[in-house]
Fold this protein.
Amino acid sequence: MIQLAWLIPLLPLIGFAIIGLGGKKLSKGLISIIGCGSVLAAFGLSLGIFLELHGQSHTVKMFDWINTGSLKVDFSFLVDPLSALFLLIITGIGFLIHVYSVGYMHDDEGFHRFFAYLNLFVFFMLLLVLGSNYLIMFVGWEGVGLCSYLLIGFWFKNTDYNNAAKKAFIINRVGDLGFLLGILLIYVLFESVSFATIGTMSGNAEYRQYTDLIGILLFIGACGKSAQIPLYTWLPDAMAGPTPVSALIHAATMVTAGIYMIARSSFIFEYAHLTNEVIATVGVVTALFAATIGIFQNDIKKVLAYSTVSQLGLMFLGLGVGATTGAVFHVTTHAFFKALLFLGAGSVIHAMSGEQDIRRMGGLRKHLPITHLTFLLGTIAISGIPPFSGFFSKDEILAGAFEEHKLHWVLGLVASMMTAFYMFRLYFLTFSGKFRGTEEQHHHLHESPKSMTIPLMVLAILSVVGGFIGIPGSHLLDHFLNPGSTGHHVDWAHEALLMGTATLLALIAIYMAWTVYVKRNTLPAEKEENMSRMQRIIYHKYYVDEFYDAIIRKPLDMISSITYRFIELPVIDGLVNGVGSSVKWLGSTVRLLQSGYVGFYIFAMTLAAIAMIYFTLIN
Amino acid sequence: MITASLIGLPLVFGLLLLFTRGEGVKRVALAASVITFLFALFAFWTLQQNPADPNLENDSVWIASIGVNFHVAMGGISMVLVLLTCLLTPLIILSSFRNQYENPSTFYALISFMQMALIGVFVARDGFLFYIFWELALIPIYFICLLWGGENRGAITFKFFIYTLFGSLFMLAALIMLYIHTPASDAGAHSFDLISLYSAHESMTAAQQGWVFWGLFLAFAIKMPVFPFHTWQPDTYVTAPTTGTMLLSGIMLKMGTYGLIVWLLPLVPEALETWGPLAVVLSVISVVYASAMAIVQQDFKRLIAYSSIAHVGLIAAGIMAYTPGKTGTEGIAGAVMQMFSHGINVVGLFFIAEIVLQRTGTRELGKLGGIRNVNPLFAVLFLIILLGSVALPLTNGFVGEFLLMNGIYQYSATAAVFAGLTIILGAVYMLRSYQSIMLGESNSVTANFGALSGNEKAVLLIVCAAVIVFGVYPKPLLDLIQTDLRSLTLLMAPASN
C-alpha cells in the first residue's frame, strides 16, 4: 500500500482535470461525485498507509525532476508518521468539507469551478506534506497559495474580494522569498535539498553557525503561510472566499503548513536555539495580539479568522519551546474544531441569507438546532474545557512553555483565556437571546440540508473525543510520531496544577462572557462614537493595514512613479537621445566647413601641414 | 550538413515567399515554418543519438586570407535556442493570421529571413560569421517595425536601429582585437574560429581584456537589454507590430544572453574577474528597476516590455555570476532554461495584449475589466501563461528561476536577495494587470469581447501546454545541455588546476 502513495495526490489531480475540462457540461451530481469521491479515495489510501506504517519511513520516487550539474532533485514522496498524520487530516477533513460544499454551493453558478479549485487545492496540499525534499514541498507550498488566491477571489466580480485575493498572494510571496532563500542556503551548505540527506548531516559542528540563519529564513516563509506577525494581515481578508474555503484552507489545512514545515525541519531547528526563541516569542505575541482583536470583531467569520491567527500563534509557541508533538497535536485538534466552527458559521450565514454581522443575529438556537449544538461543542473544545480535544493539545503546548519560559506560559494562558471569552461572546450573541435580524430573515431561518449537517456532526464528535490521541499518560500521538522515544515523564501533581489553572481561567472567561452578553444582554456598539478610544483602535485592528499601506504600498507606488517620470524618461532615455542629437549637431556644424571656397580649403591645408611639421620636429 | 541546412531552409523559404502572391501567402509561410520546425526536431533527434555526429558540424574555408571559416556546429545550448526559434516562428506566424498586412509576401519573407539569421547566430562557431548573422538579424526586424509599425514608428525604429548597431560595432572591434591576438598560422594568418578566440586571452594584457569585455558586454547588454541601456526597448516593443514585438522579445533578445554564455564568459577570464561583479550588479539593478517601472505602467504592452527587462536581467545575472571554482553551473543551466521559457511565455503575453487590443480597441488597464465574465476560456489561458511568468512551481518559469536564483545565491547572497524581489514584484504587477483586464464587472469596452478564433486558441493552447510540460518535466532540456555545461566548466577552470 505504501508504494501507492503517489496515488494519493494524483486522485484529486485527476478530479481537478475532469471537472476543470468538463466544466459546465458535467451535471452537478457528477461533479459532486468526482469531487468528493477523489478525496474520499485518497482518504482511504491514506488510512491504509497510516495503519501499515508502524513508525517507519519510506521514500517513493516518481521521476528525476531538476537534474543539472551536481543538483539532483527527485520528484519523490516521503511517507513517515508525520506526513501520514497530515495526510489523514487533509483528506479526512477535506472530504467532509467537500461534502458540505455540495450543499453550500449548490445554487452558485460557479459550482464546477469551485470543485475544480478545491480538488486542485487538495492535490497541492498533499504534495506539500508528501514531498521528500524542500523543493517538492515548495511546489505544494506555492500551489496552495495559488488555490488560496483563486478561491478567495472566487466571486471575481467583486473588487474587494479580488483585492483580498491579490493581497493574500503577494504577502505570501514575501514569505516565500524567505523560504526560497532558506532552501538555497540549505543547498549551498548540504549540496542537497532532500530531508533524509540533510537530516544525517545537520548535526555536524561545521554547520552550527548557519542553523539559525536557515531557521530564520524558513520561519519567514512560515510566517507568511501561517499568518504570523508581521505577515498575518492577509488571513482576515481571506474570509472573502466562500465559507467552506475558509474552513478547509484558511483554518484546517493550508495555514498549518508553516507548522508542518518547521516540524519537518526539526533537524535544523534542533540546533537553532536563537530561532526557537524568536519563534516562541512571535507565536505567543501573535496569539495574544490576534485574540485582543477577536474580542472586538462583529463579523462571525472575522472573529473566527482572528481566532485562527491566535491559535496558530499558540502552535508556534509550542514549536519554539520544543513541544513539537504538542504543536502537531494542536494542529490536529484545531483542524477538527475550527473546521467545525467555520462550517457552523457557514450554516448560520446560509440560514441568515448572507448576513455575517453577529449584532443582527441572536436566538438562532431554536431555528438551527444541529448547527447550534455542534457549534457549542466546537466552542467548548476551542475554549479548552476538559475533556474536549482542544484542552489536551493546548495543555501540552502550555506545559512545554512552562518548562521553558514562565513568561511565555503566562502570556499563552492569557491568550487562551481571551479565546474562551471571545468564542463564548460569539456563541451567545449568535445563538442565545432574541433574534435581532429583519422580519424577512426571520421568516427564512432554516436548518441546513443533510449534506451540510452530517459533516458538522462528524466534526463535532471528533472535536469532543479527538483529544484522546494525546492525553497525558497515554501519549498515543507522541509514540506514533516518535516511535523510538520513551515519552517525557512529567510530574503528575505539577501537570494537574497546570491543567487546573488553565481550566479555571477558561471557566472564569466563559462566566464573564455570560455575564456581559446574556445576563446584562449587552450588544457591541453600533457606532464608533460609542466606543472608548482603546476599543476603537482595536476595532480597527490597531490600524496595521493602514500602517503597511503607508510604509510599503504607497511608497513603492510613489517611488516607482517618480522614478519613471523623473529618471527613466528624462535622464536615462534623455542621455541616449542627447548623444543622438549631439552627433546630429556636430554633423550639421562640421558640415558648414565644407563651404566650397577653394581659398578656405588651401588655408586649412596649409595650417594642417604646419601643425604636422611642428609636431614632428618636437618629437 | 544538418546544421547548415537548418540555416539554408528558412532562407530558401524566404525567397519563395517573396514571390508568392495572393491571400494564401500566410498559409505558405506557416507551412514553411512548420517544415523548418520538423527539421529542427530531426536535428534534435540526431544530437540525442550522437552528440558528436559529424553531420551536425560544418567547417569550410570562406575567406582564407583573414582566417574566416564558415564554421557552424550544434551543441546542446545552441540546440535549445534553435528549437525555441523554430517553435516560436510558426506560432508567431499563426498569431498574425487575423491581421491584414499590406504586402504580405514581403512581411512573411522578412520573418523567414529573420529566422535564418537567428539560427545562424545560435550555431556560428566563427567570430566573423557570428558578427555577420548578428547584423543580418537586425535588417528584417528593422523593416518589419518600420513598415508595419504603429504611431511614430519612424523615429522610434531609427533609434532602435542606431542604438543596437552602435553596440554591435563595439562587438566587432572586440572581436578584431581578439582576432589579432590569436596564434598565427604558418601562413601568417590569424583565425576567427571560436576555439582560437578562446585562446587569444593568453597573449593579452588585463587592460586589453577589459576593453574586449566591455565591447562585447555592451553589444549584448543593449540587445537584451540591461539597465541602463534599455530605453530603446519599451518604445520599440510598443510601436512594433505585435509580430515584430514577439520576434524581438521571444527570440532576438536571446542573442544577447546566448552571447554572454558562449561569446563572453570563456573569452577573457581576467577581465571577467575584474568586471564580472559590475555586470552582475547592473543585471540585478535591471531586475528591481524594471519591475518597479512595470508596476506603474498603464499600457499592458509596455508593462510586459518592462517585465521582460526584469526577467532578462535575472538571466544575465545568473550567467555573469558563474565563477569557476566558486559556483556550480546551476546559473547557466537556469539561464538556458529561462531563455526557452521566457521566449514562450512572453510571446503568449504579447499575443494576449494583441487579442485584447483587437477586440476592445485599447490596452489601457484602467479602461478594461471583466473579460472573464465574457470569455472564461481566455481567462484560464491567460492565467496559465501569467503563472509561468511569475514562476509558479510546476510551470516552466519556475525551473529556470530557481536555477538562476541558485546560481546567484552561490555567488552572493546579497545579490540573490535583491534579485529575489522579482518573486514579489512580479506577482504585484502581473496580478494587478490580470485583475484590471480580466476580473470585476465587464464594461462597455469589454462586454462584446466574443469568443476566440480557432487560430488564437491553437496558439494559446500550445503556449500553455509548453508552460506546464516543461515545468513538470524539464529533463529533456536539462539533459541536452549537460555536455555543454561540462565543457564550459573545463574551458573556464582556473589555470592552477
About this structure: The radius of gyration of chain B is 22 Å.
